[in-house]
UniProtKB/TrEMBL annotation, chain A:
Residue numbers spanned by region Disordered: 1-26, 479-505
Protein name as annotated: Membrane protein
UniProt key word Transmembrane: yes
Species of provenance: Arthrobacter crystallopoietes BAB-32
Organism phylogeny: Bacteria, Bacillati, Actinomycetota, Actinomycetes, Micrococcales
Residue ranges of domain YdbS-like PH in the record: 99-178, 272-330, 398-474
UniProtKB/TrEMBL annotation, chain B:
Naturally occurring in which organism (per UniProt): Arthrobacter crystallopoietes BAB-32
Name of the protein in question: YdbS-like PH domain-containing protein
Presence of keyword Signal: no
InterPro entries to which the protein is assigned, alphabetical: YdbS-like_PH (IPR005182)
Keyword Transmembrane helix carried by entry: yes
Sorted UniProt keywords: Membrane, Transmembrane, Transmembrane helix
Domain YdbS-like PH: 82-159
Chain segments annotated as transmembrane: 25-51, 57-77
Length: 505, 170
């Protein structure tokens, strides 16, 4: 491989031509690597498929009609071929150029990616700022044995760094390398290139039967039932009044059915083949039906957790766990699945996963406290609930709404029919606010809202007695401040005297 | 100003400048003029006979309701501004606001990512500025408007210094 003829501002220094080997030793400033050559094809296959469809359909149909294709008659054949070749050349040229100009390197401290043909983009991220690493294989990538590596840092609307695509084994090796350097683990000075993936222990796998059950019992079924009920009533009334509106009713059902099917699909495809494992580098989740993902969330990166239970899952005592991780943010692409720590699990599974996120629950009886948070009411498990005078305002939820505090986390419980529990570690509390509206003022109530990073979890302690709420507000700020002073270092395996927080940002 | 039920004990709030009432009132005047003009358009058209078909009761209600809502907002502005307050504690900054819907927020210095000081044209004319604190959470909507410019500068320096001293990761 030669040096590119028109090197950008980042042109490699003489002798530093990009390679396709995965960097095992930290890269020097001038050593760069390229992604796999067929990557643009995996990314741009849709364009090729569209062209094939456009040109192919006409010829294909004409074969069946037994007459020559419109495109190939009356001298149009030449032009058709020219246009096809031109478009193909443009696409393939673009593919080749974009591949040629995309380079990456992983140094001891940073990961850098340069990309773009006309508008160059240079991106650099610090390894110890990693919030999560994903290895993603889209359907076509699986056929070719390629995978995309996503490196997430906090406060990036999109992935900080995407390497697409690498051979699967290389992507995994690179993930291990990045995590090893980010964790501050010491490598063997004799063999700096021998980085082994941290050993992982399987924690749980969701059986296929439960995935099907969870899909059938999901909120979509409730929506479907409500829809059918409304339409049946509507149709019955229509017949009684002789409107003859059966066809209209059915056609109204179609968009609803599409939405329900989409709902079923999203539950099914994300829960399918879900496995969780734990390693010194954090929690590792694998799932997916067509597109498979392996997510790694290093220790201390989970900002908040919520455990919810859709209405019908009560029958089986199943729950879903969602997390806020700074890097995942609100990116539209598959964010529902990415922020799911457990798509469907029994109470035992929930406890196992919570133990991974919150290694020290900070209480003598974690099972009792968290069980009370999941399905309990009133004061069991040490929860403090809304005062009795709220019962006419929230007659269903007043015995559920409440909070409990352990040494390490705050648990906010709510919801009677759709049960929900939010857990925020003290050291992850960003800021807090007490809210009080006019009605709450009359009833001497207040809500406490805990602020965490962007994500599906929004912890709120609802309708507390004003004195209790103020006390919680004060104590919680003190607890959060104390927890911050002794929180874990960002490089989670680094050996350091004591557990001092380093002031380096 | 008296202490509200949700205010923490033993806090003496620093109130924002009374001049901020004028800033808010001028801003209110502009938006009130525009909204009343828009809402009164049907009434004007009706009275000048351009649009006879428009129901008279609707035209009158629309204009009347807009005028009343704007007047009500104007009455509230001074009280709303007086309800804004902040207090610096050792570990964190407290910010309160609101009269009907009250809020008391605590922002730990160690959690601040950056501090914004913004000055609009109206605020500049009155020598005021707005200070806004940002944490890693988008829900932290911690703005202190209508602070005198010198106080805003002091606050920014103070907050940055305290944030530096108590810095924590995410």
């Amino acid at each position: 491989m030669t040096t590119p003829r028109g090197p950008g501002p980042d042109g490699p220094a003489p002798g530093g031509s990009p390679t396709r080997d995965v960097p095992l030793v930290p890269d020097r400033e001038d050593s760069w690597h390229r992604v796999h050559p067929i990557s643009p094809l995996v990314r741009g296959w849709l364009a090729l498929a569209a062209i094939a469809y456009f040109f192919g359909r006409d010829s294909f149909e004409s074969i069946f009609r037994g007459e020559p294709a419109w495109m190939l008659t009356e001298g149009r054949g030449f032009w058709a071929a020219a246009i096809l070749l031109g478009v193909l050349a443009l696409l393939v040229g673009g593919f080749v150029l974009s591949w040629w100009f995309t380079r990456y390197q992983v140094t001891q401290e940073h990961v850098r990616v340069n990309s773009g043909i006309l508008f160059r983009q240079h991106r650099q991220a610090r390894l110890d700022r990693v919030q999560a690493i994903d290895v993603i294989q889209p359907l076509l990538g699986r056929i070719f044995g390629l995978a995309e590596l996503k490196f997430e840092v906090a406060d990036a609307g999109e992935s900080a760094v995407r390497l697409a695509y690498l051979p699967l084994a290389s992507a995994q090796q690179l993930r291990a390398t990045i995590l090893a350097r980010a964790s501050g683990a010491e490598t063997d000075p004799e063999h700096p290139d021998e980085i082994h993936e941290a050993p992982e222990h399987p924690v749980l796998a969701i059986p296929a039967s439960r995935v099907v059950g969870a899909t059938l019992l999901s909120g979509s079924t409730v929506a479907l039932a409500v829809m059918v009920l409304v339409l049946a009533t509507g149709t019955a009334v229509g017949f009684a009044l002789d409107w003859g509106s059966f066809g209209v009713a059915l056609s109204a059902l179609v968009p609803g059915l599409v939405a329900v099917a989409a709902g079923y699909w999203s539950v099914f495809s994300t829960a399918y083949n879900f496995r969780a494992a734990v390693s010194p580098d954090g929690i590792r989740l694998r799932y997916g039906l067509l597109e498979t993902r392996a997510q790694t969330v290093p220790p201390g990166r989970v900002q908040a957790v919520s455990v919810t239970q859709p209405l019908l899952w009560r029958l089986k005592d199943w729950y879903r766990i969602k997390v806020n991780v700074a890097g995942y943010g609100v990116s539209a692409e598959n964010s529902g699945a990415r922020t799911t720590l457990l798509p469907v699990g029994t109470r035992g599974d929930v406890m196992q996963m919570l133990a991974l996120v919150l290694p020290d629950p900070g209480t003598e009886d974690p099972f009792g406290v968290f069980s009370a948070g999941l399905a309990g009411k009133d004061n069991d498990g040490g929860f403090v609930t809304s005062p009795r005078r709220v019962r006419w305002l929230s007659f269903l939820t007043w015995r559920r709404n409440g909070f409990a505090v352990t040494r390490t986390a705050l648990l906010a419980r709510s919801g009677r029919l759709w049960r929900s529990l939010a857990v925020v570690p003290h050291e992850r509390t960003q800021s807090m606010a007490l809210h009080q509206g006019p009605l709450a003022r009359r009833l001497k109530l207040a809500d406490l809202q805990l602020h965490t990073t962007t994500g599906p979890v929004r912890p709120v302690v609802y309708q507390m007695d004003i004195a209790t709420a103020r006390q919680l507000f004060d104590e919680q700020s003190a607890r959060a401040a104390a927890a911050r002073r002794q929180s874990l270092p960002e490089r989670w395996l680094e050996h350091r005297p004591g557990q001092e927080q380093d002031g380096q940002q | 100003m008296r202490s509200e039920p949700i205010d923490p004990d033993g806090i003496s709030w620093i109130r924002v400048s009374p001049k901020y009432i004028s800033v808010q009132l001028i801003g209110w005047g502009i938006s009130a003029l525009i909204s009343i003009a828009v809402a009164s358009a049907p009434l004007v058209l009706l009275l000048t006979g351009v649009w006879d078909g428009f129901p008279a009761w609707l035209a009158w209600t629309l204009s009347g309701a807009t005028v009343l809502a704007n007047l009500w907002a104007a009455v509230l502005i001074p009280r709303q501004v007086r309800a804004i307050g902040y207090a610096e504690r050792d570990e964190d900054l407290l910010i309160r606001r609101g009269i009907f819907f009250q809020r008391v927020m605590v922002v730990p210095y160690g959690r601040m990512q950056y501090v914004d000081v913004a000055v609009g044209p109206l605020e500049r004319a009155f020598g005021l500025a707005s200070v806004k604190l940002h944490t890693a959470s988008p829900q932290t909507n911690a703005a202190i408007p209508g602070v005198p410019a010198a106080e805003a500068a002091r606050l920014r320096e103070q907050l940055s210094a305290r944030g530096q001293a108590r810095l924590a990761g995410l």
